[in-house]
Specification:
The structure is a single chain. This protein is of the alpha/beta class. It has one domain: Cupredoxins -  blue copper proteins (Immunoglobulin-like, Sandwich), CATH 2.60.40.420. The protein is 29% helix and 25% strand. A hairpin with a 2-residue loop joins strand 1 and strand 2. The protein is globular. The N terminus is likely disordered.
Length: 151
């Protein structure tokens, strides 16, 4: 009985400490832009979207790490959150403002996102706003280069 209690306490401590280590990052909708354009996070972190009046946030098909969950908030969903569990780059948009440049990135993990090449390939399948998605990916890569995470 004591060993079961001990193991339960250890397990609870491990699970509890993982939640303490997770961070929350705030992304703001500002006119027709996301600020910041690139958000850096660790697996398990939460992204909170604010200033959402007139906006939504949605992942772009094919622009997530393998196995990552898609999302699509309702318009004006203030405080909508996404937990990013898989390492890699996540490209997302505001659906009504995508063609005016409201596309951004979340980079999860250290180093270069493992799905960079997949993003370039998936770009060909973006039906609307392809140039703005390409612009966001280009800016994300420039930021990664500046931070020494890619060559």
């Amino acid at each position: 009985m004591r060993s079961k209690l001990l193991w339960s306490a250890v397990l609870l401590g491990v699970v509890g400490s993982a939640n303490v280590l997770a961070e929350e990052h705030v992304v703001k909708a500002v006119i027709t832009n996301w600020e910041p354009l690139v958000t850096y996070a660790k697996p398990g972190d939460t992204i909170r979207f604010t200033q959402m009046a007139g906006h939504n946030t949605a992942s772009i098909d094919g622009m997530l790490p393998a196995g990552a969950a898609k999302w699509d908030s309702k318009m004006g969903a203030e405080g909508f959150t996404v937990t990013v569990d898989k390492e890699g780059a996540y490209i997302y948009k505001c659906t009504p403002h995508m063609t005016t440049g409201m596309v951004a990135a979340i980079v999860v993990g250290d180093g270069a996102p493992s799905n960079l090449e997949a993003l370039d390939t998936a770009l060909n399948d973006v039906p609307l706003g392809k140039n703005m998605v390409a612009r966001a990916i280009k800016k994300m890569k420039a930021d990664l280069l500046e931070k020494g995470r890619i060559k």
